[in-house]
Amino acid sequence: MCPQCGEDYDATVGFCAKDGTPLVPSSEANLIGKLVGGRYQIHKLLGEGGMGQVYLAEHVRMKRKSAIKIMRAALVHEPEALQRFTREAENASKISHPNVAGIFDFGETDEGLVYLAMEFIDGESLSATLKREVAMHPVVAADIIAQASDALQAAHDLGILHRDIKPDNVMVSQRSDGTFVVKLVDFGIARTMERGSQQVTRTGFAVGTPEFMSPEQLSGDVLDARSDQYSLALVAFIALTGHDAFANSSSKESLIARLTSRPRRLDEVRSDLEWPESIQEVFDQALAPDPADRFPSVAEFGNTLANAVSEMTPSQTAEMYRHALGQRMSNVGSRTPIENPGVRTPATAHVTQKTKAQKPAPSRRKDPAALGRRRSVFPYVVMTAAITYGVWWYGSQQPSGAARNAADVIEANASSFKTWVSGFVAKSDSTAAADSSDAEKPAVSTAPRRPRRRADTAAAKKPIDTATTAAVDTSARRDTTIPPK
Predict the structure, then answer these.
(1) How far is C-alpha 381 from the geometric centre of its chain's CA atoms?
(2) Nearest-5° Cα angle at 144, 142 to 146
(3) Are residues 412 and 467 in contact, defined by beta-carbon separation less than 8 angstroms?
(4) Which of 25, 54, 92, 116 shows its CA 20 to 30 Å from the CA of 105?
């Protein structure tokens, strides 16, 4: 009995015929408020499908919201259904990508309930969005398809083929900046591609949703990653136009046309927009009947579609969404610790401008390295003076000999140097006094002063020569007074 309308409950329908709300069988309605797996508190029912129900739950210890998928009790004992449920947990848990719904836990309770705990997505499926809006803005649709293609590429890189790409399995939630984040779900019929033939199903046996199957999937042929690309291109066509790529896609004629013909043109199904030919070429290639004519990878399909949509005439909505996307990417780039050479971040630009505006005047101080080189001479000067003083002191203590002669020469030179310094200081003082007294007088040429300076220098040198000669004569006389041995 349906709890919503009171009519007989049909488990194959899953939704109330009157209001469309998910139906909860009487045997499973008591799960709300119960603890599943000893750690997941069930809050409410989110949806229901052929395999079971999906509930909103919360981890009692981590306080993290999760989506709990409970397998129908009637299917637990069916090997094929249980294998599909288990395969969804195994395949999805292998893929670590921001656009793939994460798997947290998988198990069976003591009561015999088989459950799958996954990431809770606070949003809705793409099919629900298209049911409400019919068609999405091209820029928004291209962004959603590009994220879904990235998720599929991550699965394909691990050798996993989804095989059931449709709007129901593309979950969409909105960020605070207005952009959308995509989560790919339901890897229940996904299979691992073999390295050799990449065959993921038996020949002549087809699984999936017929409206979004590739031609090779409909005919039961060998499948590879380009089959998921075809299905995603069908989803992209509906998201952009609100119509199927092939007329009456559920009819037998449409399925046959999908095997032999090209999709409908964009301007044929939606003439209110000017579609660049590049977008039509993207769909013609991605929806080609022969897999060899499609894009090499699903990621290339998503990127090419996004680039083609960017060629459309921009509108205010598109510019706002593009601005939000660019702002989000710039925020991510500003948090990146490694900067590319030649790329100036906003913080670096601010510092550069401040440095240019407040650049200090060039300093007149000496180069520290040059000062260090000059200071390094000082120890040698001190050492030379000490040795000279030691020679003079030792020689002055001797009555004769080479040491005595050296001491006399040092003493004579020291006396001469002292006399020269005294004369130079006296001359400098007199010159400074004359300059200070003539400070207020007109400038006079200093040319006549040069002879006087030279004369003074010559006069100062005479005592030095006389003293040196006297010292030498005295030394000679001392040597003659010593009797020979």
Answers:
(1) 60
(2) 65
(3) yes
(4) 25
pLDDT of residue 148: 96
Domain assignment of residue 341, yes or no: no
Question: For 330-347, what is each residue's pLDDT tens digit?
Answer: 665 554 554 444 433 333
Best CA proximity match to 321, nearest among 143, 147, 184: 143
Give the chain's radius of gyration (CA, Å): 48
Which of 295, 318, 333 is a domain's end point? 333
Domain tally for the chain?
3
Q: Name the average pLDDT for the chain.
A: 75
Same domain, 293 and 202: yes
Same domain, 184 and 241: yes
Does one domain contain both 258 and 146?
yes
Give a yes or no: residue 460 inside a domain: yes
Q: At 442, which amino acid appears?
A: P
Long-range contacts of 364-369 (CB under 8 A, 24+ apart): none
* Domain ranges, residue 390: 385-430+450-485
User: Which CATH number is 213's domain given?
Assistant: 1.10.510.10
Angle, nearest 10°, between helix axes 378-396 and 402-437?
130
Distance CA 452, CA 383 (A): 38
Which are the contacts of 413, defined by CB distance < 8 A and separation ≥ 6?
Answer: 468
CATH number at residue 114: 3.30.200.20
pTM of the model: 0.60
Do residue 323 and residue 289 come from a single domain? yes
Strand partners, 40: 36, 59
**pLDDT tens digits, residue range 60-111?**
999 999 999 999 888 888 888 888 888 888 888 889 899 999 889 999 888 8
Distance (Å, whole) CA 100 – CA 409: 98
Eight-class DSSP state of 47: E
Instruction: Give the span between the Cα atoms of 2 and 14, in whole angstroms.
Output: 10
Q: Which pLDDT band holds residue 183 (cuts at 50, 70, 90)?
A: very high
Q: Which amino acid type is present at position 450?
A: R
369 falls within a domain:
no
* Closest to 171 (Cα-Cα) out of 270, 240, 99: 99
**211-232 per-residue burial string, b: 16 or more CB within 10 A, e: under 16:** bbbbbbbeeebebbbbbbbbbb
Q: Tell me: do 325 and 397 sit in the same domain.
A: no
- The answer to whether residue 362 sits within a structural domain is no
Place of tokens 């959603």: 144
Task: Please state the φ and ψ torsions of residue 377, each to the nearest 5 degrees.
Answer: -80, -25
What CA–CA distance (Å, rounded) separates 87 from 189?
7
CA angle 158, 102, 141 (to 5 degrees): 85
Q: Are residues 80 and 129 in the same domain?
A: no
> Domain check: are 249 and 105 in the same one?
no
C-alpha distances in angstroms, 125 versus 134, 170, 378? 13, 6, 84
Catalogue the active-site residues. Answer: 164
